[in-house]
Every structure is written in structure tokens, then in C-alpha cells.
Amino acid sequence: MKITVIGAGNMGSAFVKQLTRAGHEVSVTARDAANAERVAAANPGAVAMTSAGSAAGADAVVLATGYDDALGALQAVGNLEGTVVIDITNPLTADYTGLSLGHDTSAAEEIAKAVPGAEVVKAFNTVFAQVLAEGADFGSNRKVTVFYAADTDRAKHTARVIAESMGFATIDAGGLKHARYLEPLAFLNIYLGYGAGLGSNIAPAWIRKN
Length: 210
Ligand SMILES: NC(=O)c1ccc[n+]([C@@H]2O[C@H](COP(=O)([O-])OP(=O)(O)OC[C@H]3O[C@@H](n4cnc5c(N)ncnc54)[C@H](OP(=O)(O)O)[C@@H]3O)[C@@H](O)[C@H]2O)c1
Known about the structure:
Layout: E1 2-6, H1 10-21, E2 25-29, H2 33-42, E3 46-48, E4 60-63, H3 67-76, E5 84-87, H4 107-114, E6 119-123, H5 129-134, E7 145-150, H6 153-165, E8 169-172, H7 179-195
Parallel strand pairs: 1-2, 1-4, 2-3, 4-5, 5-6, 7-8
Antiparallel strand pairs: 6-7
This protein binds NADP nicotinamide-adenine-dinucleotide phosphate (NAP).
Residues 6-12, 29-32, 35, 51, 64-67, 69, 72-73, 76, 88-90, 92, 125, 127-129 line the site of NADP nicotinamide-adenine-dinucleotide phosphate.
């Protein structure tokens, strides 16, 4: 697939690494062009682009900026009518002690409202950057799960195919509204990793009795 990654930080760089390894055609942008260029240079097959026009012809755009930068970043890439946008953001408060919105909305729903032509899918927000960068295989036949929530089959399908191409297990978490539950789940993961000391090499999973 042709995939544009907006953001070249912890998550953006890990996406570029795993997406190029999976054989996708990857473009990466950042606020500072030098950061996108550095990430592209480290991952053969990736190209750095300036924001304007970087989403043209993309099968998916991965939104890997902070939530507060998300709308500006999406507007800067140009027309997203009919484009699948994979929203990985968690709307953390400035002091990282909670979420800045939720319960009756979510970052994903706010983004979808602000970019109405795009097909937004919430996914990957419960996956730590370290886990994404190191890979989905947790050993003993266990794979990290990517939960995805969207209102269109096309957006869900795109997120699932991309996640599975990088080796993740996937679970359909319902409509985009269910980002209201995935974002708090990610915050619990952050608390467990950093607050409770489990470290960032963890991931939430659902288990079913055989
Ligand atoms: N870190 C994690 O473990 C993790 C896990 C799951 C979800 N998330 C979510 O993923 C998102 C990114 O997290 P992160 O840790 O990767 O953050 P980060 O390291 O701070 O990276 C953010 C990136 O966004 C870029 N950016 C900001 N505004 C932009 C714009 N207008 N156009 C293009 N690029 C722009 C920045 O560009 P510059 O490099 O030029 O500054 C930077 O590369 C956040 O919403 C976070 O909640 C993070």
C-alpha cells in the first residue's frame, strides 16, 4: 500500500521502520523537514516529503502527531476527501496524568468532525512506540493486538491489513464512537507502563477461554 506517515517522532519513526519492512511504499513528514529526512534515510524505501500534497494518492495516512497538533497537521497535507486516516493519538493532558477529553467524545471523533471527508479509524493507540519499533512478536506464540474502531468497512479493512502486514493480531472494536473506550485503555496502559513501573514493553490483550 501507499502510506503517508505524518510525524517522525517515537511513533512515526517506528511506523516507517515496520511499514517499509512490510513492503509498503512509505512517505514521512514532520514539522521540521530534517526530522522526516533522518527517519527516511534510516529506512530504505521511505521518502521524506513536505506536508503539502503528501497524502495525494495515499491508501492510508497515519496520524502520528500529538493530539493538539493533529488538526493543523491534517489540514497541511491537503485534500483528504475519501482518504483513510489512521488516528493513533491519545489526547493526554499536558502533565500526562490523564486525558483531556473523553466519555462523551474522543480524539478520533473530534478529528473526524474536523476533517469530514476523511474515513477515520482509531487504531494503534494502545501500542507503545517501543513495542511498535521492536515488533509485534511477544514470544510463546503471542502477538501484540491492534484494536481498531471505525464507521466504514473500508477504514477498518485498511487498518487491519496494515496491522497484520506488520505482524500484529487485530480485533475489530466497533464503530468510531468506541474510540471513547480505546483512548482510556491506552491511558491505563501508559499508567501501568510508567506509573506502576511495568515498563513500556507491555501491551493490552483480550483472552478467550478455549
Ligand atoms: N509514544 C508512544 O508510545 C505512543 C503510543 C501510542 C500512541 N501514541 C500517540 O502517538 C502520537 C505521537 O506520539 P510520539 O510519541 O511519536 O510523539 P513525538 O515523538 O513527540 O512525535 C510527534 C511528531 O509529530 C510531528 N508533528 C507535529 N506537528 C506536525 C505537523 N503540523 N505536521 C507534521 N508533523 C508534525 C513532530 O514533528 P517534529 O519531529 O518536526 O517535531 C514529531 O515528529 C501522540 O498522539 C501519542 O499520544 C504514542
